[in-house]
Specification:
Elements (H helix, E strand, L loop, with lengths): L9 E6 L4 H13 L4 E5 L10 H7 L3 H6 L1 E3 L2 H4 L5 E4 L11 E2 L1 H9 L7 E5 L8 H4 L4 E3 L12 H16 L16 H18 L10 H12 L3 H17 L3
Parallel strand pairs: 1-2, 1-6, 2-3, 4-6, 4-7, 5-7
């Protein structure tokens, strides 16, 4: 995994979107993967970018909505795009080749010169029309359960945005950098002494014939690499055992 993220070479295009919530959810899916260019072609509602459901589902990705454009045709939406990918689910007898997200997008990301890529999504109810599919360089197929392959529009956007981000160069995963507060040998021994008292009080440990119980516990706790807060928990358990065994 690399921390280098390429510039945004991507446009997401939604044709004839009916539900404002899907536009907002698409903006959110794009932003979390580092994409910013959204174009709507003839959405059902002319004011869809400012509707309450749209803004609510964007959940912090309002900047994507502010920059989004609404156009009258797919041809306008594809201006500047050198490689258009349709998301039609139904196989066509005639049309562009079908690619898969992992292999197809990986090859596209490595292509030289680099493309301006446009992902094209049809309406929620009807998908993409044949004439729109024919304008694309490829059709992408998301591998799904053959018995149930129905994806919500925004879900499909999220899947492809993720796969395309991985192909371009993923974001680094945040890792915990703070050093753990490990208990030292003296602290561990103090806890073991406490446990020895508690186990003796319980009758589990016979001081006259302890065998190797305490050394084995010592080795077990050493392997666990106990932290200070875990020592406090274990001493609390020992204290509770001693309280229960008081006359």
């Amino acid at each position: 995994m690399t921390s280098e993220v390429h510039p945004d070479p991507t446009r997401f295009i939604l044709i004839g979107t009916s539900h404002p919530g899907n536009v907002g959810a698409t903006a959110r899916a794009m932003k979390v993967m580092g994409f910013s260019e959204l174009v709507l072609v003839r959405p059902r509602f002319a004011d869809v970018l400012v509707q309450e459901d749209t803004v609510a589902m964007a959940s912090g990705a309002a900047d994507i909505l502010v920059r989004a454009r609404i156009v009258d045709s797919l041809a306008e939406a594809l201006e500047g795009v050198s490689y258009a990918i349709g998301t039609a689910m139904t196989p066509r007898d005639f049309g562009p080749p079908t690619i898969t997200p992992r292999d197809g997008l990986g090859a596209l990301a490595r292509a030289t010169p680099a493309h301006k890529v446009g992902f094209v999504f049809g309406s929620e109810r009807y998908g993409m029309a044949n004439e729109d599919v024919y304008r694309c360089h490829a059709v992408i197929s998301i591998p799904t359960n053959p018995d149930y392959g129905s994806l919500n529009l925004a879900q499909a956007v999220q899947v492809l945005a993720y796969e395309w981000r991985q192909a371009l160069g993923s974001f680094p995963v945040s890792e915990r950098t703070a050093e753990p507060d490990l208990a030292d040998g003296r602290t561990v021994q103090g806890m073991l002494d406490h446990w020895e008292q508690a186990l003796t009080a319980l009758g589990f440990l016979d001081p006259a014939a302890p065998k190797k119980l305490m050394p084995r516990l010592n080795q077990m706790f050493n392997r666990a690499q106990l932290r200070q807060e875990e020592i406090h928990i274990l001493r609390g358990v020992a204290k509770a055992m001693l309280e229960k065994t008081k006359p």
